[in-house]
Amino acid sequence: MANIALLGAPTQSGTYRRGCLMGPAALRTAGLVEALSDLGHTVSADRDLAPVPLDMNDAPYLPAHHVGETAGWVRAIRTAVAETLASGAFPLLLGGDHSIAAGSLAGVMDHAPATHIVWLDAHPDFHTIRTTQSGNLHGIPVAIAAGLEGADLIYGGPITPLPPSQITMIGIRSVDPAERALLTEHGVTVHDMRAVDEHGVGVLVRGAIAKAEAAGAPIHVSLDVDFLEPAIAPAVGTTVPGGATFREAHLAMELLHESGRVGSLDLVELNPFLDERGRTATLMVDLAASLFGRSIMDRPTRSW
User: Fold this and answer.
1) Distance set, CA 37 to CA 3, 152, 264, 288, 293 (Å)
2) Is 224 known to be catalytic?
3) Amino acid 239: pLDDT
4) Annotated catalytic residue within 98, 116, 127, 250
5) Choosing from 97, 192, 269, 286, which is the catalytic residue?
6) Catalytic entry in 69, 179, 192, 226
7) Counting C-beta atoms within 10 Å of the first and last residue's C-beta, which end of the chain has fewer, N or C?
8) Residue 300's pLDDT is what?
9) Is 121 assigned a catalytic role?
10) Rounded average pLDDT over 274-285
11) Is 269 an annotated catalytic residue?
12) How does 87-117 read in b/e, with b if 16+ C-beta sit within 10 Å?
């Protein structure tokens, strides 16, 4: 059984839509602690983090916005995740927009640089601080964790760069031209929704697990709400049609659980302001439960 530390990051600085800062509270309200406890796990810590206070002027980095606030969150999360892993606990980061993953990725690399990343998202989030056209820093976490332009600015010091060969992205269906060029240049494994349609999510997730097993490495999972089909998960400001279905998402989580290699998790981009009677928050809790061992026989039946 896992010893889990819930780390809330109530921030929306990396996006243009308000509401993500309510995400950690919504996940707790939807029963996350109870779901984990019912599976026999110990939730040894449950707290919200606070950003490192920074005073940065956005002007040199436009159109990027809220650079200082985002950097403050990233630095605080990096420290908290690394310390949690060092203590032997499982860090479960509750977002908040996906810019916070820059902190969890760096923290994971600080502790275990061989870790493989399974990135479940509609977007690769592989912009740099200079290539972003929207200026929304939830589009840069993977690139800067890999040490690309903007890493020094956001982290405020050296990091252990995330090797692109250790990243597997699944569910991608919205990629900007600059990101596409960077992903190709750095050799990131990207499985878009066509690959999911052609091969099945099980094959792709098993492939990511096999890479980690061959390296004897743990896995960090970063799950964005927009990985899912918007019809089943409306509470996200970056909806892209054609996402993972209910069963595809649960299968991915179940396979990751069975691998026995997952040591850290992000649940991000939940915007309760856009939800319908808490259905997305509840689904994210259910997916987390699958990752921690809940089976079909254990799953409650709900009617919407």
Assistant:
1) 10, 39, 17, 12, 11
2) yes
3) 82
4) 98
5) 269
6) 226
7) C
8) 61
9) yes
10) 96
11) yes
12) eebbbbbbbbbbbbbbbbbbbbbbbbeebbb
- 226 counts as catalytic: yes
Instruction: Find all residues with CB under 8 Å of 227, minimum gap 6, and list them.
Output: 120, 121, 122, 170, 171, 243, 244, 249
Active site residue 125: yes
Q: Which CATH architecture has domain 3-298?
A: 3-Layer(aba) Sandwich (3.40)
pTM (predicted TM-score): 0.94
Active-site annotation holder among 138, 191, 220, 250: 138
Asked if residue 122 lies in contact with residue 230, where contact means CB atoms within 8 angstroms, the answer is no
Please give, one letter per residue, the 3-state secondary structure of 211-265.
HHHHHCCCEEEEEEHHHECCCCCCCCCCCCCCCECHHHHHHHHHHHHHHCCEEEE
Which residue in the block uniquely carries the two structure tokens 């659980």? 257
What does the domain layout of the chain look like in residue ranges? 3-298
The pLDDT of 73-77, averaged and rounded, is 98
